[in-house]
Structures are given as C-alpha cells and as structure tokens.
Amino acid sequence: MNAPYAPLFPLGKDETPYRKLSDQGVRVEKFDGEEILIVEPEAIRLLAEAAMSDINHLLRSGHLAQLRKILDDPEATANDKFVAFDLLKNANIAAGGVLPMCQDTGTAIVMGKKGRRVFTKGGDEA
Questions:
Q1: First CA to last CA across the chain, in angstroms?
Q2: Residue 42: helix, strand or coil by DSSP?
Q3: β 34-39/26-31 pair status
Q4: Contact 17/61 with Cβ under 8 angstroms?
C-alpha cells in the first residue's frame, strides 16, 4: 500500500519582510495564454550576491527580537543569556560588513527554486 504524498519540509505562513532589489532583467510575457516570468542571468547574479551578503552579515529583525526576548526572560538561565548576548555581539560586528556572521566556518549557502512559469536562459547555478 502506498503512503500518501507529504512534503518533506512543509512550510508555514511566510512572514519574512522582503525588499525589492531591482526590476531590471525581470519581465512578464504571455505564452500559450499564460503569464510567464522571464529572468535574465544578471538579475540572478544580483540576487545571489545580495543574498550572500545578507546571509553573511545580517540577522533578520525577527531573529534579533527572539534574542532580545531571551535577555528579558526572567526564567532564562545564565547560559541562555550568555549565548544570546554573544550572538547579538557577533551580529553587531558582522553588520559592519567586514567579518561574516559565521566566523567559525565562514560557510553560507544560497538556494533558489523556480516555478513552472519562470524561464531563464539556463546555467542558473553559475
């Protein structure tokens, strides 16, 4: 008997604040009666570059707020507060844009997915 399909990592509601980088290199066209998104290689490069910079140097405001809650929590242990405070100090240093957030490994990964009506010229991984 086959089990029903279930997504490996089901997603919840996305409450991430986004910012628009540019609309250059991105356009909508009609194909077979449907709108499709055309994305030029330079737009993908710009997005990947901005993503790498953000991942290396910035924490989202929601993450910063969670760290602040730990510091304000009277039930948090001394170790909890130490770790939260160290993460906030590290975030402050990384936000200067010189040293990355992850100073022990320096590893960040950017992954992108495109839907069925998103067209590129190929070679997106480059």
A1: 42
A2: helix
A3: antiparallel
A4: yes
Closest to 122 measured CA to CA, from 47, 38, 4: 38
Among residues 37, 13, 15, 11, which one has the least CA distance to residue 26?
A: 37
Contact predicate 14/95, CB 8 Å? no
For the whole model, what pTM was predicted? 0.71
Tokens 């992108």 correspond to what residue?
112
Considering Cα of 117, then 122, then 125, then 126, what sign does the dihedral take?
negative
Compute CA distances 69 → 73, 79, 80, 125, whole Å.
Answer: 6, 14, 11, 38
pLDDT in tens, 17-65: 889 999 999 999 999 999 999 999 999 999 989 988 888 888 889 999 9
Q: Which residues contact 70 (CB under 8 A, 6 or more apart)?
A: 76, 80, 81, 83, 84
As a whole number of angstroms, the distance between CA 80 and CA 58 comes to: 21
